[in-house]
Amino acid sequence: MTGQSSNASAAKTPKPQATDDKNNQTISAADVEAYLRDHPDFFQDHLPLLDILRLPHPAGGAVSLMERQVALLREKHRAMEQHMGELVERARDNERMGQHLHELAKTLMRAENLDAVLALTQDALRNELGAERVSIRLADREVDDLHALESGELSTFDPLFARGKAQCGRVPGEMLDVLFDSADGIGSAILMPLGDESDRIGVLGLASDSPDRFQPDMGIYFVTHIGDLLAESIRCHVERTHAAA
Asked: Is the domain covering 86-244 a CATH 3.40.50.620 domain?
């Protein structure tokens, strides 16, 4: 009897049910984020969720997801408008600089001699580039003392000619001392080699009292072209002088 009772009890004991691992898994926030990234159109098929989801607002309170999306789109639109405005202003600056370069080229073509080339270039750079000080110093050229560059002074600019392009921002004081007699009061400057290492014509310098006027990261496209125009004009007038002699 005892054996039969035990068997009956065993028969009545319910068997444990298989665990549904999938239903018992905990879904983390990372899982939700990953799913939504993989299914960006999820809310298109579940539009009612947009009305019940609430997001914190920077100004306080909460807004629906749809309202937040609209706010983000407006912020992006404002950023794009600002960026477009900056691009338009930069294009206008480039157009103005291109016009200045064109006028300078015509001015240099009309110059009667080397002294006129130097004087006209200095006036143009002061008026059109807003440089408080402009200096053009030439090496081995028959010019007045104001524009002459001694052979000993020329070696001061060895790094500039080795660089082969304009240097902007804060430049070595010894270079400024040669070009402007003193570096005192100069906040920023542009130095442009005229010619190259094999034919060192001279140096063009623009200086400002403001440390923010000429920055190291500013574009040197137009300054480079001005230097090329000036160097070529100097060569032409020197050759004419020698031919006439």
From this structure: no
